[in-house]
Predict the structure.
Amino acid sequence: DGGITQSPKYLFRKEGQNVTLSCEQNLNHDAMYWYRQDPGQGLRLIYYSQIVNDFQKGDIAEGYSVSREKKESFPLTVTSAQKNPTAFYLCASSGWPTSDTQYFGPGTRLTVL
Amino acid sequence: DAKTTQPPSMDCAEGRAANLPCNHSTISGNEYVYWYRQIHSQGPQYIIHGLKNNETNEMASLIITEDRKSSTLILPHATLRDTAVYYCIVRSRIYNQGGKLIFGQGTELSVKP
C-alpha cells in the first residue's frame, strides 16, 4: 500500500520537553512538507524539503526543527522554544516539480500538558 | 499567490449537487486553482485543479469563469461522506517554491439526509 504514515496518532508531552513526530512516505516523492493546524483554522506551513539533505523554513518555523537524511523520511521536532505546541500536525509529500499534487498523512495530534 | 474568498459554511441535501464557490479576483495568468477537502480530524485530500478550462474527474467538476476571477467546485451527487471542509487554493506552478500550498479557512460543507 503506497502512502504517507505518521505516528503516533495522539501524543502527550509535558511542557518543556522536546518531541519528535514521525513522517514516512513510500511514494518515491522528492518533496515533503510539515503543516500545523489549530482548531477551526486552515493549515500553516512549518518546513518543507525539496530534496534529501535540504529543507527550507515555511511561515511558522520558529520553535521547530527538521531533518531530511533519507528520501522516505522527514521527522519534525517540536522544541521547548515553541510557545504553543498543542496542535494537529500534518505531513505531506508531492512529486514536485513533476507534479504538485500533495498527498497528506493522517496527522498527529500533539497535546502539551 | 492570489488570495481566495470562500463562504464559511454551506448545507446540501443528500443526492443533490453541491456547488461550492470561490472568489480569486487577483489571480494572475500563471496561477492554477486547486481544491482540497478535509474530513474532520483527517489529512486533506486532493480533489481537482485547473488553469482556464473546466475540468472533471471521478470526484468532482471544476468550473472556472472566463475572466478567471472565480470558480465553482461541483460535487454532482453529494453523499453524507462528502461532509468536510473544502479549501480553494490559488498558486503559481512556475514561481511557487517547492510546491507549497497556502490554505485559507475553507468552506464547511454539511450534507444532510
Summary: The mean pLDDT of chain A is 93. The interface with chain B takes residues 4, 31, 33, 35, 41-45, 48-50, 56, 58, 88, 90, 92, 94, 96-97, 100-107, 109 of chain A (CB under 8 Å). Chain A has no helices and eleven strands. Residues 35 and 44 of chain A are 5 Å apart (CA to CA).
